[in-house]
Specification:
This protein is of the alpha/beta class. Helices cover 41% and strands 20% of the residues. An eight-stranded mixed beta sheet has the order 6-5-7-4-8-9-10-11, sandwiched between helices. This is Flagellar biosynthesis protein FlhF.
């Protein structure tokens, strides 16, 4: 196996050089735009930097002095374009999503981890971001053993998430919203119970979930167990009256109806009913068992509501956390809490970066 880095004026030129040096079966591992300095560093010229790999056993390799000349294109006339037939194998790899074939020449333990990441549902973009440090090591002919390899991957994953200390004591209102069936009411009860039992806070509930059968009764049961008042609101006026009535409490937990997230009208109704402001800390509740595209779609649908973080539920019901990681990466929004069971208040935890990374990597 040979792995090399090339710099050229254009991708077209780079493809030609790679074919000359590594052959028609070369695979593109990474490409990016760089700037080459000219005239003693006073000006910069745009270029591309490409890392490619090939299995050259039995290949008639170009002579070393010719390779050196081909490595970087010199200023001058643009090279003749590469024909469509000549470019096709390399071009397909440049523009295709990252898949297992890109790493088929790597050592077994590297290839195994690459495949497991893909099997975890990690998007091709994040997969590439995670594997890039390994590509850089491969350029130096360094292949770390599996423990060090997992260490590097863990560091890359950690860049996408952060720790969370939870809402602070000054937060008056905590609101949860999201699609149907993600466990909003139970999650709200867990947060409230933790405040009441572990922090000795005076708590109360408001619910706007008047659509679901027995929704009010469910929350009423939790409220009675925690000796907390419950206000049911059908309108914005009801909500404002409830705020006045519960003004002496430390934390007021707000439950909302789970509706079809594709119905834009539901989002508008929620915005009209609850006067979101600086004194209301909101969370979008999502299920970790959802498909990647559904997670992204739901997040986009609720994007104009002022939620600070996600709450991911049902982590105990899935072994595939790649879609969650893709959500965090693409929306630039972090997780506040995770839940992994039905017990109240035990089965809820503040987001811990190292724990989440370990959960994702436990199959690697």
């Amino acid at each position: 196996m040979r792995i090399k880095k090339f710099t050229a004026d254009t991708m077209n030129s780079a493809a030609k050089i790679i074919k000359q040096e590594l052959g028609n079966d070369a695979v593109i591992l990474n490409s990016k735009t760089v700037y080459k300095r000219k005239l003693f560093g006073l000006t910069k010229k745009k270029a591309v930097e490409v890392i490619a790999v090939a299995d050259q056993s039995g290949l008639d390799v170009t002579a070393p002095q010719e390779k050196k000349a081909l490595r970087t294109l010199k200023p001058g006339p643009s090279p003749a374009p590469v024909s469509e037939t000549e470019q096709k194998p390399i071009r397909q790899m440049v523009h295709s999503p990252i898949d297992k074939t890109r790493y088929e020449l790597f050592p077994d333990h590297v290839r195994q981890i690459s495949n497991l990441l893909l099997n975890q549902g990690v998007s091709s973009e994040i997969h590439h971001q995670i594997m890039l440090p390994l590509i850089e090591l491969a350029l130096k002919n360094e292949w770390p053993e599996k423990p060090r390899l997992l260490d590097i991957i863990g560091q890359e994953l950690s860049c996408l998430i952060d720790d969370y200390k939870g809402f602070n004591d000054q937060t008056k209102y905590i609101a949860l919203f999201g699609p149907t069936g993600v466990g909003k009411t139970t999650t709200l009860a867990k947060l409230a119970a933790d405040s009441f039992l572990n922090k000795q806070k005076r708590i109360a509930f408001i619910t706007t979930d008047t659509y679901r059968i027995a929704a009010v009764e469910q929350l009423k049961t939790y409220a009675e167990l925690l000796s907390a008042p419950l206000e049911v609101c059908y309108s914005k006026e009801d909500f404002q009256k409830a705020q006045q009535k519960l003004s002496e409490y430390d934390h007021v937990f707000i439950d909302t109806a789970g509706r079809n997230y594709k119905e834009t009208q539901f989002i508008k109704e929620l915005e009209q009913l609850i006067p979101f402001g600086d004194d209301i800390e909101s969370y979008l509740v999502l299920s970790a068992t959802s498909k990647q595209e559904d997670l992204l779609q739901i997040s986009r649908q609720f994007a104009h509501l002022p939620f600070c973080r996600y709450i991911m539920t049902k982590l105990d019901e899935t072994d595939t956390l790649g879609p969650v990681l893709t959500l965090l990466s693409e929306t630039k929004t972090c997780i506040g809490y995770i839940t992994d069971g039905q017990a109240v208040p035990e089965d809820i935890r503040k987001m811990n970066k190292s724990e989440f990374v370990q959960s994702l990597m436990r199959f690697l």
